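Batch manifest, entry 17 of 40.
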Amino acid sequence: MNPKAMDDNKNLKKNRIKMYFLDAAKEIIINEGHENVSVRKVADMAGYSYPTMYNYFDDLNGLLWDVKEAMIRDLIELMSKKMMKTTYDINGIKKLFRIYVGYYFENPNVFKFFYFHQLNSVYKKIDEAESEINFAQMWQETFKGFVLAGKLQETEIEAVAKLLIYGVHGMLTLCFS
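Output type: structure tokens
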């Protein structure tokens, strides 16, 4: 076997095992809440000993950063699928927020993990800015119909999007607290 193929197999195996830990932590967060996540519990659920997890993550906080990023991507993917062929007019925006709020009502522990659990930013990856989801671009796409209709200026999109999202987060926080 050539060295490149061996490296590819090694990386595949490493990524697969890392995903076992991520999936286990996601499952615990969704079903039991972030306060019940522990290295031992995640490792046990993933089918490995807890020291093995440290081959893939610096510590529990490092794992939780990756879990949070994966869960955000899962939410965006879900919303994108449900919004296919939807026009982003007033009814489309309402549908988008119904999906968003509905997701959190179905998964209140995810909301609590995202907004009530403080992750240590020291562990935030340096290259995370490159992989971070571009919300400004998503907002531009979502509200471009309003700009084209002359109801919004392009410079107002971020403020309007944040106003709506923060308002929804405030109401969800009151609901879940």
